[in-house]
From TrEMBL:
Residues 197-341 form the CPAF-like PDZ domain. GO terms for molecular function: serine-type peptidase activity. It comes from the Eukaryota. This is Peptidase S41 family protein ustP. GO terms for biological process: proteolysis. Coiled coil: none annotated. Pfam families: PDZ_CPAF_rel (PF23658), Peptidase_S41 (PF03572). Residues 405-613 form the Tail specific protease domain.
Amino acid sequence: MRFDYLCASLAVVIINPAWATFNFHSLFEESQPTKTNDPSKQHLSPVINLSKIVKPVANNISFLSKTQKEPCAVVSSSSAVQILANPTAIPIVPAKLAYDCLTSVPLNKTAALELVYSIEPYIQWQSNLAWLKDPPKDYDFPPHDTLNVLASVKENLLNDKYPNEHSFQIDLYSVFTLAHDGHFIFFPDLLSRALDFRRQRALVSISEDGKSLPVIKLFGGFFDLPKSSLLMTCSKTNNMFIDDVIRAPRVASEITQINGINASEFIVDEVIKTTGQQIIDAGYNTLFYSKAGFAINQGSGFFAGAGRGRFLYPGPNTTLTFGNGTSLSFQNVASIRGNFTGVDSGQAFYQRFCDPNRFLVPSPAPPPPVSVPPSPLVPGYPPAVIKTNNTAVSGYYLDGDGFEDVAVLSLLTFESPSPPEYQRVVEKFFSLAKRDGKKKLLIDLSQNGGGLIFLGYDIFRQLFPDIVQDGNSRWRVNDNFKSISEIFSSLAQDFNPDTTSSRTLVTQANLPFNFREDLKISNQSFKTFGDKFGPFSVKDDKFTNLMRWNLSDPILTRNSTFGIGTDVTGYGFRQNFTRPFAPEDIVMLHDGYCASTCTIFSQFMRELGGVKSIAMGGRPISGPIEGVGGVKGSQILLWNDIYQLGQSALLNATEEQAKDLRRLTTLPLSRSGAAASNVRDAILAKNIDDGTPSQFIREISDCRLYYTEHMITDVTALWKTAADSAFNGKACAYGSLPKRPAGSALDSVSQGFMIESTEFITYEEISPEQNAAWLAVHEQKAIN
């Protein structure tokens, strides 16, 4: 029995290190969790014998010194005991104790002001500041003047408004979280490096019959804990359980209130404070358990933990009130992520986790080539017809009446250590599906937060090889961007890829900062620096011209050092393909999480391919919702990447350019757990004239469906319900998908799809040079 169950379940964690020899296993009755990779089948039932701990705790608290009674010292002691008992476990302490530790950290006003000043030039790379400040009227969130909010944080520092480091960093964190942009983040060190908060129960949002509005219920299998409060007195040793959707789906009661607030309103409030999604319905879905969420990262929904809310104190306890009159209260906890050895005070915490000299930023180095063995089954999913080794892509066939000709392509992410393998697995699945008589295709994009940009392009072109995609984008022009572009364009003036021996020059010449790279929206090359970089005025801000990727450039694509190791379908050696399915026989399934590269793919499919979409879940409000709810920006750059680009440009900078570039320092990098900006806006064809980024354009899905209990426990139930609406004429909860004519898919595919059948494709992982320059071209993923 794991020691961390104890610490997750009891408020008694003020333990002296002398407890390391105590037999904690004796605290538990014999009740072992069922071992499975599916939480819907996992019943964790540690029955705690409180009588075995009460006396030892009482006897040992007296040994605590004054220093050890400091909240951070108590966290340190408890963490040490837990690690000693189980070195592989993540220590857990009560959320209130962790919060008291964080708020005991004194404010270093001078360092805080230096941090705020150092952040400003990185924020200037954020492409949509003008629209955040003044969004369209139908945008889900209120205006957010990012630079002005940052200035108010600086003003508060100057006027001594912050009592401690925590209150300052909470305000600094809100500069980014209130932008609701999955590419725009700054995780301050105090909040992100030491610990994060979580609740000990997961929730689901489901409709009772698929037609009525969804309600919130308790999800089983995350922690099965006593019905009585986790802050229970020593006399409460019963092992009664609240009915949940796993243990008793037919009688599980609706949760009507959370902490005394209407349950759905409580969830919406959490979304407004923390979500990285750009629509509320999408953020709402992220707080609940889903099969896809567990498959991609073994998560149980952001209500239980993870997401951007993990850095915010949720209070000491959570109380759930049920429609049947019962209630459940449990203690919130904090997971210890940092090394608390020797952290015996708030000041020691600051020195350990907030000292920039302890977190110097190393230069990124490419990883060595490694052999990647096939992964096991996609967690919680049935056996696949074929899948990638990292389970990013998997293909399935549905069975049963009405589904005999339906294939399902699950795209959990566009990330891949080997883009050629990702491409080949999708290609092969289409070939196998056609061989086996599958005429309809359901593309499940649940929980897809993006990945490699060109893989999104490639899957679209595998389905529509005859359609040349647009993919219009633009950068915001700031002083650093202008200097880097001037320097790299000058260096690439005489660049010849066939004769140069300089890897650095190849890298610089193939970056978007060289005006000769990329194409106009007419698919012609830019002729001058001003032609590409302007600047051009839109909404009282400065931008580049609209541009598109030049996918005919082999250095960008099939080169395995600077590209992704393969041509994008429709280019180079991957031409003369034909459509494997007709557009009317394809449907996309979204859960609102779709972000980054996923949004690019979805927009191509909808706008250019004419493919319809289904959106799942959302708030308990009738009407349509958007299925693509993640960040729709066209490019993310980590601040470390921006810094490295600036350092590279500095080697050839004029004095004036150098002055601008030196404003990019390592301070924000060494004082954050992660930091990034959305540096490119995606611009849909219909918005070329007004310039509004797609991030602020509503794109309603054709059909809305609600999750049911069966879909929570069986992903094929979700797929069949979606396929029924898409292909068999079953009604949507809102919207419609007209029944598709049978046999409308093409009867054959090109020779390029004909690959022999194997269960796995074993491969040697390619090793593209994933430095700042490579990421500036290829990476596109939301960060939560």
